[in-house]
Design brief:
By secondary structure, the chain is an alpha+beta fold. The protein contains six helices and six strands, in the order ββαααββαββαα. Helix 5 packs antiparallel against helix 6.
Length: about 160
């Protein structure tokens, strides 16, 4: 009987996803002592992040709980989280970059989103300007989004 295992599943986008399931009570209690909380998406708050670590923090959050969407008709970046996290994030990013993002609610899920072309370019250029590591597939989406928007803005 394994206490740790990976569950492979395929999403609607046909991308393989993996979930780590921990069933051992002692391991779970040890992780909780280190700050891990169950059902974090229901209780997460935006942490105090020093300015020099804000971009890497957001980059990691995007890789884990975010989405860069690119198509010929729309482009956006969004994060799924709690209302408190989304509000704090929106306030910090909108004032830092001078953009207008928004917060949406669907069911009990809150989403921070930026989709206006100019605001989206400002945000993702800022986020990826000194990209050295992360999910390559999201970096490739960034390049496609940037290309799509630049084509639209120059026509």
């Amino acid at each position: 009987n394994f206490s740790l295992y990976f569950v492979k599943k395929t999403s609607e986008a046909r991308v393989n996803n993996y979930r780590l399931a921990i069933r051992d009570k002692q391991i779970v209690m040890d992780l909780q002592k280190l700050g891990l909380v169950p059902k974090k998406s229901l209780v997460l708050t935006f942490p105090e992040v020093p300015d020099e670590f804000l971009k890497p923090f957001i980059h990691g959050y995007l890789d884990g709980d975010g989405c860069l969407f690119e198509s010929s008709y729309t482009n956006y970046c969004k994060f799924i989280s709690t209302l408190q996290f989304c509000e704090s994030f929106k306030s910090k990013i909108d004032s830092l970059l001078g953009i207008n993002s928004r917060i949406n609610k669907k069911g009990n899920v809150w989403t921070w989103i930026v989709s206006n072309a100019k605001d989206l370019i400002l945000f993702i250029d800022w986020l990826y300007e000194d990209y050295t590591f992360g999910l390559d597939r999201k970096y490739e989406k960034y390049l496609k989004i940037k290309n799509n928007i630049n084509l639209k803005l120059n026509n």
